[in-house]
């Protein structure tokens, strides 16, 4: 990898309140606490990944964004001028993929640069 490159490690999270349409004011659970736990878990995951890249002396920027994963990934690729996007695939197929949508398919179709889909 070119030493001048920066690896942007992105985690896109959808807050519980947005994902399930809960009104925090009228929910039976503390939606704010659930959303914060989601952010903490995302940060822990990012920290592990950043450490791996740092061990190999790569410049790394960790980013947590809220919203639809496919849209967030594409917007981040555009904003950072990405040369490559690497995205995972859960291997959904058939009706499940059709109903749930596919983040990797959206990114492949909308990204401004090549996309590597890892399974």
List keywords for this structure.
20% strand, two-stranded parallel sheet, 2 domains, globular, single chain, alpha/beta, 119 residues, two-stranded parallel ribbon
Based on CA atoms alone, the radius of gyration comes out at 16 Å
Low-confidence stretches: none
Mean pLDDT: 83
Question: By helix and strand content, what is the structural category?
Answer: alpha/beta
Strand order of the largest sheet: 1-2
Helix content: 40-55%
Principal-axis shape equals globular
Number of domains: 2
Termini separation (Å)? 22 Å
**Can you count the helices?**
5
Report strand %.
15-25%
- Order of secondary-structure elements: EHHEHEHHE
Strand segment count? 4
Query: Could you give a short account of the major beta sheet?
Result: 2 strands, parallel
